[in-house]
Write a structure and sequence with these properties.
It comes from Phytoactinopolyspora mesophila. This is Replication initiation protein. InterPro entries: RepSA. The protein is an alpha+beta fold and 514 residues long. The protein has two domains: 136 residues, no CATH class; 259 residues, no CATH class. It is 28% helix and 13% strand. The chain contains ten helices and 14 strands. The strands form five sheets. A five-stranded antiparallel sheet has the order 12-5-7-6-13, sandwiched between helices. It has a three-stranded antiparallel sheet with strand order 2-1-14. A two-stranded antiparallel sheet has the order 3-4. β1 and β2 form a beta hairpin. It is globular. The two termini are 38 Å apart.
Length: 514
């Protein structure tokens, strides 16, 4: 009986089913003591499902553990800089004024810190030096420590259908939608800063940025502890971010773009040869007008959802899953997984993508040349439409920042430490069942020979060194090994009996996390 030949699609399907990386990096490992050489597969580590479903799912589960572990802590997490940091304001945008960084001579340009007339003043209570939420004791001896699940949205840009496409594309404000998406991360930073100041508490959060059906960004956040809902609504209403930038309403150059001039060390008009204003010169012109208005103001919408969540309840587990549900998707992906995109939705995506493609995303963006201004820190080779920021990509639709936002004292651990925790859980289950673990430090980069030199040398496998069949065989071997490990782990759990509650102090049912 002949063995059936496995093609690329079959191997990929099996790899996805077994959670094995479908596009691993090949690396050559040489043992300098024995001279043996072998090829090792290193997972690609992608976080997007369309790139590698297995690695993306692994990254999502790791985020789920991180979210769950820090949400309802009963003890302060320890961090490396606890002594020097009383709160987390340092991971936010510090200045209340909308500065543009250091100008010429290293002097920081800062706008007035006076709040807008249409924004309410927020309370400033004394600071508290705890990140833990309040606990409540019941007469029967139980202790509850509730926390919150918060959802913030953007304003309306026009009526949309159930599919999320505009009822009237002609009146839909695509420009504001694109600008709000480009600067949504700054608005989020300002919200956490305002909430911390208005409550006096170093608020801790695990938040994700996701698209709504209309493709506008919105924020889901697990917040440790509870706060008055009226205060949160007041903070949301009073939070804004202003862009004190030169005007970019109409492009000054479309067909003929500014060119680089070596003598002027900057960009000049292609016809007259006159130098374009530098970034600092353009801001000086803006400062010279006492009645100048910001180029754009970003605000949240009126729809706010606030829910109280208790630790260890099904509601908490559902919210953790909901927070991380779409982390493996691109912003422009169909969230329904039906694979069908209507012509109206495709046109909606095209319009947003066209707007974010040409709008400037930062002072250093090359798109400023279209508006007759040299970008900050200008250099030769900058071309409008070819900015390196991923915010301009069709897959991101303006959201070029991080999709997962975690405060410093959420757990006090890095993602690498959370990953080690998951491995420790598996190792404990196997050891309790009397099964010896493989020596994962066998090929450690820190292993040395008797003379102190590294024993193992890693080198990349260059294209052409490994043919396609051998690449598929390596993935097939990884699939077989994964199946064997899973079977071994399931047998170990059955032999070990019910999970030990002491395996993890913070993760309910931790033994099943792997």
């Amino acid at each position: 009986m002949t063995t059936p030949t496995l093609d690329d699609d079959t191997i990929r399907g099996l790899a996805v089913a077994e959670k094995v990386c479908v596009r691993p990096i090949l690396s050559k490992l040489t043992d300098t003591e024995t001279g043996d050489t072998r090829t090792v597969l290193i997972p690609c580590g992608a976080t997007r499902e369309q790139v590698c479903p297995s690695c993306a799912d692994r990254a999502r589960r790791l985020r789920m553990q991180q979210c769950r572990e820090g949400w309802h802590l009963s003890e302060e997490p320890t961090t490396d800089n606890d002594e020097s940091q009383d709160d987390d304001d340092t991971d936010e945008d510090q200045g209340e004024g909308d500065g543009d960084g250091a100008g010429e001579g290293g002097v920081r340009r800062v706008r007035s810190t006076r709040r807008r007339d249409d924004a309410d003043d927020l309370p400033r209570p004394p600071k508290q030096h705890t990140t833990l939420g309040r606990s409540f004791d019941t007469p029967d001896g139980k202790t509850y420590r509730p926390s919150m699940f918060l959802t913030l949205t953007m304003p309306s840009y026009g009526r949309v259908t159930r599919e999320g496409v505009p009822v009237d594309p002609g009146s839909y404000d695509y420009r504001q939608a694109a600008l709000d998406a480009l600067h949504f991360p700054k608005l989020i930073d300002r919200f956490w800063q305002n909430l911390r100041r208005a409550t006096g508490v170093p608020v801790q959060y695990f938040a994700t940025v996701e698209p709504q059906r209309r493709l506008a960004p919105h924020l889901h956040a697990a917040v440790r502890g509870t706060f008055p809902r009226a205060l949160i609504r007041q903070v949301v209403t009073a939070t804004y971010h202003q862009l004190w930038w030169p005007s970019f309403d109409e492009p000054a150059y479309v067909d003929r773009l500014p060119v680089w001039d070596e003598h002027a060390c900057g960009y000049v008009d292609p016809d007259t040869g006159a130098s374009l204003p530098t970034w600092d010169e353009a801001l000086d012109q803006l400062d010279a007008h006492p009645d100048a208005e910001p180029a754009h103001v970003v605000r949240f919408g009126t729809q706010i959802d606030m829910q109280g969540i208790l630790a260890g309840t099904p509601a908490a587990d559902r919210r953790v899953g909901y927070l991380t549900k779409y982390l493996t998707k691109n912003i422009a992906d169909d969230l329904n997984d039906d694979g069908e995109v209507s012509a109206a939705r495709q046109a909606h995506i095209d319009r947003i993508a066209d707007e974010v493609r040409w709008l400037p995303c930062a002072p250093t963006c090359a798109h400023w040349l279209r508006f007759g201004v040299q970008p900050k820190n200008t250099r030769p080779g900058q071309v409008p439409g070819l900015c390196r920021s991923k915010a301009h990509d069709r897959d991101h639709l303006g959201l070029g920042g991080r999709r997962v936002l975690v405060s410093r004292k959420w757990t006090g651990k890095t993602l690498t430490e959370h990953k080690a925790d998951r491995a420790a859980i598996v190792r404990t289950v196997l050891e309790d069942a009397g099964i010896d673990m493989d020596d994962h430090g066998e090929f450690s980069a820190t292993a040395t020979r008797a003379d102190g030199l590294p024993r193992y040398v890693w080198s990349p496998v260059r294209p052409g060194e490994a043919d396609a069949p051998s690449y598929l065989r390596l993935i097939a071997h990884a699939i077989n090994r994964r199946q064997a490990w899973r079977e071994q782990y399931e047998q170990a759990k059955q032999r070990a009996g019910p999970p030990d509650p002491n395996l993890s102090a913070t993760i309910p049912g931790a033994a099943t996390a792997a």
